[in-house]
Known about the structure:
Blueprint: H1 2-5, E1 13-26, H2 28-33, H3 36-54, E2 58-63, E3 70-76, H4 79-90, E4 98-111, H5 113-125, H6 133-149, H7 151-154, E5 163-171, H8 184-199, E6 206-211, E7 220-226, H9 230-239, H10 243-248, E8 249-251, E9 255-260, H11 262-269
Antiparallel strand pairs: 1-3, 1-4, 2-3, 2-9, 4-6, 5-7, 5-8, 5-9, 6-7
Amino acid sequence: xxxxxNIPPVPLTIEGAAVLHQMMRVRWASWRALPDSDRAAIxxxxxxxxxxIEKQNSAAFGLLGHKGxxxxxxxRPGFDQLGEIQTCLAHLRLWDYLxxxxxxxxxxxxxxxxxxxxxxxxxxxxxxxxxxxxxxxQIEQTLERQRQAMHPRLFPDxxxxxxxxxxxxxxxxxxxxxxxxxxxxxxxxxxxxxxAVGRRYAGTVKQIITGSIGFDDWEWGVDLFADDPLVFKxxxxxxRFDHVSAVYAxxxxxxxxxxxxxxxxxxxxxx
Length: 271
């Protein structure tokens, strides 16, 4: 029993693609002031680049509301590739006429609460000391099995759905309610309940969770892709009633956009 009480509180996670969201506002006055020929040449260059980066797992969305006009979403194998796409876009002439209003850096993350509880308990019952060489080796074997089994989910293609809802979120860690002080088993129970809600929407929405602790201002980013934007409201509203969301969830700004192909991108910038 003493061994079980001393197991680490941190759940195992596996990580995949690096993800960058870029939210931008068009500097409309400066853009409209350009001669038609200059604007056409700049737009041709940008549209050609968009067509190329879509093949590398990027997508463009026209934002709804005042938070911006355009959101670019990039999924890449690692941070080096995110840096390359960010530099590539910054070198476009169009970039002089865009104001970046926000951005978000994260990695695709799958939490392994169920596997964590099982693995930690089995190792503790064998008397293996947490964080010892033997413990770390066996935990890595567990993680590697999960990485192989979950590879498509760790490195997904940007879904082709018409709409995207993105928002960052935290778990409360205040004096009264602190998610990180709950026992591992209780966090596992609450997350299982939370996940059950999401699975009921599996046929209508694609959800990608990304971890951002140490990378950005919030702890996770959530991307929801669907052809009907009303599903975002229904899913998020229903989740507000499960215990982990009702008691421990904090949310950042929400961004909702419509998918833009190259022609849609041209239309957005045609004046």
